[in-house]
Amino acid sequence: MSENTRSQRERMLAGDPYVADDPELAALSARARRLQDAYHRASVAEDPSARDLLVDLLGECGDEVEVRPPLFVDYGEHLRIGARTFVNYNLTALDCALVTIGEDCQIGPGVQLLTATHPLEPGPRRDKVEAAEPITLGDNVWLGGGVIVCPGVSIGDDSVVGAGSVVTKDIPAGVVAVGNPARVIRSL
Question: Is residue 40 annotated as part of the catalytic site, yes or no?
């Protein structure tokens, strides 16, 4: 497919530069906001439809997943959450690229999973050009409250990231990492 015939959404999902205020992307984002709001309201009301709304919003939602609202996503359909994962209040998952959260994870309050990248040059930024890189959390990962995970980062199985840390590079499996930028301080 030639460069000129790909949609902005196709470019976004390929990790290539795209125009963020594209009408198709705006419609998908509006759908996500409506579902986020409906999920929040149903969850607070303890309405049994809350789970169905969450499943409709997310690309994948494993069994026994608990997501405490509010949840903030760009699209939702690029966010996959594995079975038995617990997500505390105020997760922001900018899912312009795939965000994968493994099974049995613990996500603290106020965590940010940020796939979007922006050009340093002022012209393309002004033109609303951006790109995105996927984020992957392995199984049994624990992110403390307020952790920020930057674009393109993977965190290995069984690792723990301390509260308030900013993860700018991959974290291997079975370690504790803390700080800004997050650094491995010990093995588990």
Answer: no
| pTM for this predicted structure | 0.95
DSSP 22-48: -HHHHHHHHHHHHHHHHHHHHHHTT-T
Catalytic residue from among 118, 119, 166, 172: 118
CA distance 171 to 19: 31
Nearest to 68 by CA among 42, 29, 101: 42
Give residue 2's pLDDT. 53
d(C-alpha 40, C-alpha 34), whole Å:
10
Which residues are CB-neighbours of 84 under 8 A, at least 6 positions away? 62, 63, 64, 65, 103, 104
Which tens digits make up the pLDDT trace of 34-83? 999 999 999 999 999 999 999 999 999 999 999 999 999 999 999 999 99
Residue 3 pLDDT class (50, 70, 90 cuts): low
Task: Count CA atoms within 13 Å of residue 46 on its CB side.
Answer: 0
Please, what is the Cα angle at 90 between 95 and 61, to 5 degrees? 55
148 touches 166 (CB < 8 A): yes
- The SS3 of residue 164 is coil
Percent of the chain with pLDDT over 70: 98
